[in-house]
Amino acid sequence: MKCLLILVGLTLYMSCTDAQSTCVGRPINQVCTGNQDEGNSNTRWCGVTAMNEMWYWSSRTRKCEKMRYRGCGGNNNRYCSNRDCTLKCRR
């Protein structure tokens, strides 16, 4: 039983680590408007799509800024990388 718990724990850890290498918090229709919106983590399922590093377009600074996405909610001004954000929003 103890080995099974360790195996389950390792599996969960590996799946969470792998999720951080892929972008799971990307909205379907990305936009370059709206303020920074990190979303919320109100339910336990929000952690599945939470990303420690995402980017949003700041109309104030006219460049992409880093933010942490909490996994639920938020707006569509959210990108997986600085490069993706800059290519879409800088004109």
Report on the biggest sheet.
Answer: 2 strands, antiparallel
CATH architecture of the domain at 30-91: Irregular
From the alpha-carbon coordinates, what is the Rg to the nearest angstrom?
16 Å
Q: Within the CATH hierarchy, at the fold level, what is the topology of the domain at 30-91?
A: Factor Xa Inhibitor
GO molecular function: serine-type endopeptidase inhibitor activity
Organism: Drosophila gunungcola
Keywords: Signal
Signal peptide: 1-19
Task: Tell me what you see in this structure.
By secondary structure, the protein is an alpha+beta fold. It has a domain at 30-91: Pancreatic trypsin inhibitor Kunitz domain (Factor Xa Inhibitor, Irregular), CATH 4.10.410. It has helices spanning 2-21, 46-49, 82-89, and strands spanning 51-58, 63-69. The longest helix has 20 residues, at 2-21.
Briefly characterize the structure.
InterPro entries: Kunitz_BPTI (IPR002223), Kunitz_BPTI_sf (IPR036880). Helices cover 35% and strands 16% of the residues.
Write the layout of secondary structure elements.
Elements: H1 2-21, H2 46-49, E1 51-58, E2 63-69, H3 82-89
Antiparallel strand pairs: 1-2
Protein name: BPTI/Kunitz inhibitor domain-containing protein
Keywords: Signal
GO molecular function, one term: serine-type endopeptidase inhibitor activity
Please name the defining characteristics of this protein.
91 residues; alpha+beta; elongated; 2 strands; 3 helices; two-stranded antiparallel sheet; Factor Xa Inhibitor
